[in-house]
Design a protein that fits this description.
Strand content: under 5%
Strand order of the largest sheet: 1-2
Largest sheet: 2 strands, parallel
Structural class: mainly alpha
């Protein structure tokens, strides 16, 4: 009986460690593909993940996590829930010049949508 108990305890420990590793995963919203965004971000499914990629391609790189709220279907609440998972890194030149003005977002602008 002891080997079975030991095996079960080991399995439970492995599951707990795997859960912690997944919770600590981060994603760079400027470089990740839709599948990665879907997997890592909470309350972001495949449709919203693709919308993030499409927005990034049309407007250039994100400069802060809050700018993610400019994507249709993503609100500030979703950004806050994922703040510890979001990484924003890109060279400044990666932001398209025409997209820079569009990326200036405030909480008031998002609330008006």
């Amino acid at each position: 009986m002891k080997p079975l108990t030991f095996l079960f305890a080991t399995f439970v420990l492995l599951l707990a460690l795997a859960g912690n590793a997944a919770a600590g995963e981060t994603v760079n919203i400027n470089t990740a593909d839709a599948a990665t965004l879907d997997r890592v971000l909470v309350n972001v499914g495949p449709v919203k993940a693709q919308a993030i990629v499409d927005y990034r391609q049309a407007n250039g790189a994100f400069r802060s996590p809050e700018q993610l709220a400019m994507v249709k279907g993503i609100g500030l609440r979703t950004v806050e829930r994922n703040r510890d998972r979001i990484v924003v890194s890109a060279p400044r030149s990666a932001v398209k010049p025409e997209g820079r003005a569009a990326l200036q977002v405030t909480t008031q602008q998002v609330a008006r949508r």
